[in-house]
């Protein structure tokens, strides 16, 4: 597509003003690259609450009402419940707006194709933001590995523990659509939050040629099925193997300013290892990145390891991209489809008893 960077601040609208707005908004505040002109949510309470941040912005109960208003908008920040992503994004692109959306892009490849087609047909950009790629300790982890400091990479491992106690409040309404997703086989840990872990794998080591998965289930009552315990392993095209395990610690307290998710990334090289100790939560109180080589452990004590900063930096990157066109989108719509394929390969593998599935061949 042809994209000409804006020579003035872009005019943006937030579509959906729920829980994640609180973090996503950080890249918009005090940012000369953007002017927030509209806030859209069917909930009057949400509109009123968020209007305090943007007293000049107009508010609407739906994207259709915004489109009909004649208000000039260039880009939309999509924070809709995941089941509304595909139809919602097609509609928003059709209104002539560039889209920056939250993960998961959508549930299947047909919807992904519809979304990419809509971007193309309307000559608009579709970005599926990936804030984990802007998390300072992960950026540093990548650069340590690429510097050769831990030697040639022999493998890596990601860990995720969903804990039941601690963290910020998540309104029940934010959980309701997750239950809808669960019924469609798109669980909260593997598909929703897991999307980020799959993204980091592709970002770190490139395309994947084989995935093997064993996706479990823990039932917490009618309609509440959590997709753990789960183990997924894979091999990248470059030969590096990765693994990820998800466990539940239902009664464990985890200190967190956000969701109660205890995460780690550990990359093993021929002469050492590098490990990110935490991300969303604050489980391990050591430096967020540690690098072990030759009998010595080095800790990075001054990284910006507040998870919220990754949202701020992702949004700033996007808004600056619109002004300059510089750098990768992280992710473009097409790149996000690779993440979707990775997840779909895991589902296909698990359903078939853990056989190897090539994500490039899933349908
Ligand atoms: N990047 C991350 O780490 C991260 C973390 C949490 C959530 N998310 C993603 O962000 C998205 C939103 O999640 P959330 O937790 O904020 O959900 P939420 O349920 O808290 O908020 C969704 C908001 O959208 C509004 N809404 C519903 N239908 C609408 C419509 N047709 N038009 C406009 N607004 C509408 C709701 O009223 C609600 O205010 C999801 O895709 C989720 O997966 C991403």
Describe this structure in words.
By secondary structure, the protein is α/β, with parallel strands linked by helices. The protein contains ten helices and 16 strands. The strands form three sheets. The chain has an eight-stranded mixed sheet with strand order 8-11-12-7-13-14-15-16. A six-stranded parallel sheet has the order 3-2-1-4-5-6, sandwiched between helices. Strands 9-10 form a two-stranded antiparallel sheet. α2 (44-51) links the parallel β2 and β3. The two termini are 26 Å apart. The model has no long low-confidence stretch (mean pLDDT 97). The structure holds nicotinamide-adenine-dinucleotide.
Mean pLDDT: 97
Structural class: alpha/beta
How far apart, in Å, are the first and last alpha carbons? 26 Å
Overall helicity: 25-40%
Strand content: 25-35%
The string of secondary-structure elements, in order, is EHEHEHEHEHEHEHHEEEEEEEEEHH
Number of strands: 16
Residue stretches low in confidence (pLDDT < 50, at least 5 long) are: none
